[in-house]
Structures are given as structure tokens and as C-alpha cells.
Amino acid sequence: MIRVLVVDDQFLVRSGLVALLRAAPGMEVAGEAADGAEAVTLAAKTRPDVVLMDIRMPGMTGIEATRRILAEAAEPAPRILILTTFDLDEYVYGALRAGASGFLLKDAGPERLLAAVTAVYGGDALFAPVVTRRLVEAFTARAEPESPGGSSPGLRALTTREVEVLRLVARGLTNAEAADRLFISEATVKTHLNRTMSKLSLTSRAQAVVLAYESGLVRPGGDG
Hints:
Radius of gyration: 17 Å
Number of helices: 11
Number of strands: 5
Strand content: 5-15%
Strand order of the largest sheet: 2-1-3-4-5
Shape: globular
Distance between the termini: 39 Å
């Protein structure tokens, strides 16, 4: 069973999500919260597998709640899937930086939402990676990279192959597509990515993508 914590300040939206999850095979509602502070408390108490997190809420936002939940969680930490009204939303970008596993538009249908929960639970930290790439590019393009050319101290700890995998993933390629490009197995790509995340102290694939852009390893609008 995938245990899901539902967080949304709108009662009707939250109730609809809870009803959908309760009716879905293999899903269990761990709890529901109406704001970020309540979400942090319930996440620590119920230890869900996945948190469906509204991003814009009064009081503690979904960004701060995401950061707090992941910082305080015992292993394994929950996967956090952001719910948003707009796909190009600086709040979502902040949540990805904070460690959220991905995001989903609130107008997505029931099947897509359930598929997204299953995907992040299974380790697919980016649901719709091309859309996430577009989001990251939109906001990192506003500022100069911290270390042009990807020469930050953290990235220098990576092997050549790990850098290659990170660059392709940041460009929106799936593990299978990156494997085809590099002539290696999909399992090897996943291994390289996991090692990269461990070396860089990242909690999600989305954070790895953000870091690749902010460090200058990948440039917005480039061809990869």
C-alpha cells in the first residue's frame, strides 16, 4: 500500500483528493492537512510514503513545509509531489530546490494523478521531466550561473560518467533515453544518478536538475 498525506487549504479540493485515493487500489490515506504547519506535524506522526502538497497556502507555504518535512524525516523520507495551478510557477521552482520530487497541475485527471503518486513512490523523482526542465530553465535564466561551466566544488567530486548522466537527466531525458545515448544499461544510469545524488547530498532527482542548471553544467536554451 502507498500511504499518502494530502495537504491543501481548500476543503473541496482536499476532500476530492482524499476520496480519489481511498477508492484507488493500492492507495491509503495517511492523513489530511489544511496548511503547511499541520502537514509538518502529520508527516512526522504518520510517516507517509508520498505527500501531495499544495504550494500556495496561507501561513506556512508548501515550500517551507517541504523543506521542514524532509529535514526532519526519518529514513526513508517521504516523496513530495507538488500540486499547483500553474506549470511555470516560481513557488514550484522553490519547492524543487527544497527537495520535492516533482509537480503536477491541479487540473490533471484522476488517472494521471494516481500514476504520478505511483511514479514518485517508485523512485521516478521527476514526473513529466520535460515540463520540469522548462520550469527550471525559466527561473535559472534570470540569473548568472554560480559557477560557469559546471566547475563548482560539488560537481568536481563527480566522475566523468556521472557528469554525463547528470547533464542528460537535466536536459529532460529519462533513464532509458540517457542509457541509449551513452550506450550503457538503464540500471547503470540509475546507479550513476544515485551516486551523484549521494555525493551532492541531494534528496531528489529534481534537486539534481536544479543544481545542474544553477551550477552552469547545463545552460538554459542549450542543445545539450
